[in-house]
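Closing statement on the adenosine-5'-diphosphate sub-project.
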Amino acid sequence: MKIELIKGDITKIEADAIVNAANSSLLGGGGVDVAIHRAGGVEILEECKEIRNRQGKCKTGEAVVTTGGNLPSKYVIHTVGPVWNDDEERCCGLLSNCYINSLKLAESLGIKTIAFPNISTGIYRFPKELAAQIAVNAVKNFQPETIEKAIFVCFDDENEMIYRKLID
Ligand code: ADP
């Protein structure tokens, strides 16, 4: 799988799927979640509500999929990152699950390109360096069948620097 790094706004990315750092309610939070719902339109929230009615909240580390609505991407994969806390090992495992479960869901849809934000490194306060190592490892170790390219979309300078160092 090819790995790319882009600095910018994930809502502008043309990929088969972009990943949202959602919260377990699936009904909107802050940060990238707000940006995705704002740019993608009500259709995404409507589908999130349907998923909630069907299966309840989305557990940490798991992923669900909706349409991309008005976004340039066909799908949004919503995954729930862990809130950083004292149980560091558990947090690391859960963050890794976010990437792996998003990739698995993408494969089940036959997706070729997928773009990730830096899950949990905003409001959820996961240390950025550690989060980036987990993200890059999870993607590198994944054995893809349909996915050809994963894009890490870094919004802030610090994450961009960290990812640049890891990927180059
Ligand atoms: P979390 O609650 O998982 O920490 P946040 O949305 O607060 O989620 O932050 C996750 C990451 O997304 C942060 O690194 C933040 O800088 C980044 N981010 C915020 N807005 C955007 C956007 N429009 N495109 C890409 N990344 C974004």
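The chain has a mean pLDDT of 98. With this model delivered, the sub-project is considered complete and its resources will be redirected to Aim 3.
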